[in-house]
Design the sequence.
């Protein structure tokens, strides 16, 4: 069966510090991968998605970036965090097929920027 | 511009009764709709979905209804149980190319089932 891991589970970082969140998927090959953010009192906002190694699509302009160095690894980064980057970050995967609508989420990372 | 709207931020229901969660959308290109359930500090879990070519899909206690002309869908939970207490997100999707679908989420409705 497929499993998705995210770490760290919680993170407290000062403004201006760098960020690196990691997501890995097991039990599937060539998944589509996604990064979402849930800010306080808001829904889930898609940040990035990837359909393959090195292929990243960005949905919103921000000071975050994403990379996919390996097939089942997805990394969310920032060079300098802003207060507005606080939130709950979720990684998700889906089957890369024209009929595969469902996305499956990891446990999330709670980021607090102070 | 919010393309998927869940206008009720919260809902309280007595155990054993029906819970009805509503969702409206504006984008007529959406062709598949999903409901996710989320507990605090956890990732959302997929619950049930419906294709735009159907008007009803059932899975145990959960039924999703789709009214395309009204651009409205609803999730019915019967009977409601205390373990159903969670935030429920409605999501809609359209094909974005290269085998990838993008989900657009509503803001969620917090369901509380009272024992």
Sequence:
């Amino acid at each position: 069966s497929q499993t998705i891991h995210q770490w760290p589970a919680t993170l407290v970082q000062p403004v201006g510090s760098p960020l690196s969140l990691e997501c890995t998927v097991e039990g599937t090959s060539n998944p589509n991968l996604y990064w979402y953010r849930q800010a306080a009192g808001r829904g889930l906002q898609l940040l990035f998605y990837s359909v393959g190694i090195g292929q990243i699509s960005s949905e919103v302009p921000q000071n975050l970036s994403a990379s996919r160095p390996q097939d089942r690894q997805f990394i969310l980064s920032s060079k300098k965090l802003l207060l507005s980057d606080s939130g709950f970050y979720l990684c998700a995967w889906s089957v890369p097929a024209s009929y595969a609508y469902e996305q499956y989420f990891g446990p999330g990372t709670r980021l607090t920027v102070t | 511009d919010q393309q998927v709207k869940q206008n009720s931020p919260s809902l309280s229901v007595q155990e054993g009764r029906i819970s009805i969660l509503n969702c409206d959308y504006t984008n007529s290109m959406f062709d598949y709709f999903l409901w996710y359930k989320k507990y605090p500090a956890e990732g959302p879990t997929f619950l049930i979905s419906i294709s735009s070519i159907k008007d009803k899909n059932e899975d145990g206690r959960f039924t999703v209804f789709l009214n395309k002309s009204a651009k409205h869908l609803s999730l019915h939970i019967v009977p409601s149980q205390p373990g159903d207490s969670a935030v429920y997100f409605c999501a809609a999707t359209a094909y974005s190319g290269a085998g990838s679908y993008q989900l657009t989420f509503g803001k969620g409705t917090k369901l509380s089932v009272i024992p």
Remarks:
- The first strand of chain B starts at residue 4 and ends at 5.
- Chain B has no helices and eleven strands.
- The mean pLDDT of chain B is 93.
- The interface with chain A takes residues 4, 32, 34, 36, 41-46, 49, 89, 91, 93, 95-96, 98-108 of chain B (CB under 8 Å).
